[in-house]
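User: Sequence recovery, please. Input:
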């Protein structure tokens, strides 16, 4: 019964009419979480944070959306797409090997300027 309730809550996260631009699944006292959040804040990118140590539904949502492979934090989603952890986000933001269409932080901000 509890699993069904958590599943429904998880679906609710994914069925929002306008999902958050950037979602950061994190925990307190997590160095990499803090680095990711400071980087986003310093770059002027708004994000929604989910504390998976206190929010079981958010933890299940994170696991479902990563296919159960991501068990560490932070886990970062941009426009609903899983980016990875802090290192992956920074690598992509600085134009690393796995560039997406937001290969730089300027490109990231421009891509989502209409939502920011």
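Assistant: Recovered sequence (116 residues):
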């Amino acid at each position: 019964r509890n699993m069904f309730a958590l599943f429904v809550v998880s679906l609710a996260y994914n069925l929002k009419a306008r999902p958050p631009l950037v979602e950061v699944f994190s925990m307190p006292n997590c160095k990499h979480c803090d680095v990711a959040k400071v980087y986003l804040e310093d770059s002027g990118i708004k994000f929604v944070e989910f504390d998976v140590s206190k929010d079981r539904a958010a933890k299940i949502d994170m696991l479902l959306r990563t296919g159960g492979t991501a068990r560490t934090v932070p886990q970062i989603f941009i426009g609903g797409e899983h980016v990875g952890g802090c290192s992956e986000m920074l690598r992509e933001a600085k134009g690393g090997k796995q560039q997406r269409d937001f290969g730089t932080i300027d490109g990231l901000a421009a891509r989502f300027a209409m939502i920011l």
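The mean pLDDT is 77.
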